[in-house]
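job 3f2a | input accepted
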Amino acid sequence: MNANPKPMNSTSLPLSGTTRKDESLSYQLANIVSYTLNPLTLSPIGAALWSLHFGGSKNQVWAVIGITTFFFCVLPLLYLVWMVKTGRTSSVEVREREARNAPMIFGMFSAVIGGWALIQFTSLHPVLTVALIAMQIANTILMLTITQWWKISLHMTGMSGFVASQFYITQQIWGVPTLDIITPIWVWPLFLTIPLLMWSRIRVGAHTPMQVLAGAGLAFPATYATLHLVFRWMYNLVF
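job 3f2a | predicted structure (239 res):
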């Protein structure tokens, strides 16, 4: 008598075709770019730059880095590792569209808790914290909605949103005192990271050209508009 086949874990996904062997230099470089310019690393960098730009002390900047790294990077990464270990996805990049809902929702709630921690344990102005969390939530909801029907590049969402947030600070006109850390002279070159990451995501086989274009094209105006609304709405409370 044949033994009954072992049932597949209902939460597992078919992972065939998600890996590829390519020893070429361009493929390896594309992987390095993809893993370096990923959404989990960009949020702490952006928050630290904002803190420096608006006059944060050394201790505050380190506190901001610590909190945002934990809630925006470490916790979401641990969740992704758990997903890989339990067979819910093939890699921490979550290339399967159907598997993306849970980590995006987890990341959004982790960011909200991180925002509360920033307000409670740092001197970062609450308006800046609200702006950081608002653009995170707005972009996540936008990508989460699209993901229900179509796979869009979350890497490009993160990169384009990061560039948009830094660019927005150089355009603010309300006379808020700053230390001029974020200036056009170095923000403009950041725009070059967008086509670089587009190339890398296509080269590693994670996305099509349309998917990376959509991620970058939607995230930039969404981020800029969210920040503009937050700062305009809360202007009388700023500093």
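job 3f2a | The longest helix spans residues 58-85.
job 3f2a | closed
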